[in-house]
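Look at a sample.

——
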Amino acid sequence: MRDAKAMLQYRILLRLCPRSILLGLLTLAPALGFTADTGNVGFNLTEVAPGVYVHHGRMVSLDDPHRDDIANIGFIVGHDCVAVIDTGGSIRIGEQLRQAIHRTTNTPVCYVINTHIHFDHVLGNAAFKHKGVEFIGHERLAAAIKGNRAFFLKHFRRELGGSDASAASIIGPDRLVHHTLELDLGHRKLRLTAYPPAHTRTDLTVYDEATRTLWLSDLLFIKRIPALDGSLLGWLAVLKKLEAIPADRAIPGHGPVSAPWPQG
């Protein structure tokens, strides 16, 4: 349960630790997150590269009523299939993402890829639980989901449907990525890579060869204090390896919808 519990421990950390210590440990930019959200009206969607769409998560705190919408999530459209990358922090956000996909393309969703265990990236999965949709995650993600179902139900019941919430609403992966996995969306290949403990113990990246877009999710935070429940040294080592990937842009888990890579 350590991965999901860290989301609440994170709130305590922010209240107890002097900001100077956090800045020193995490080498952050001066502009920190947890500011009032001013840019999200409706369900915004940006095409950051041809066929690559990102919904910009709100920059609000975990105490905010809109905490289910704080992560950058989205999808990639191929000739035959759509791959969804993270589904948000509630079934409501997942459903909004699903509707946005249907407004954007007639291509069916074949895959839902979860980049890690944290609630703001996985609790919308139930909106995509339909025939023909395969859920994919890190080799440790299935066990992490199973071990955290009770925790999610206790602390995120509203996001899971309120009185109708049940363990069945928390969807884990059907296919696990042990090292790398290639998905063909139809004239468009994605390379999924699983990592040792870094931001969490379940981190996964997605690289779109067609547009040289690297979807890093929470391995990259911009203008927001990172949560950490994996390994700081492991995270630094992973980032060093990621710098070598020949990407033009990266999609962070929080912050702007894209950033130049590796400068980002």
Summary: Residues 2-16 form the longest helix (15 residues). DSSP finds six helices and 13 strands in the chain. The two ends are 31 Å apart (CA to CA).
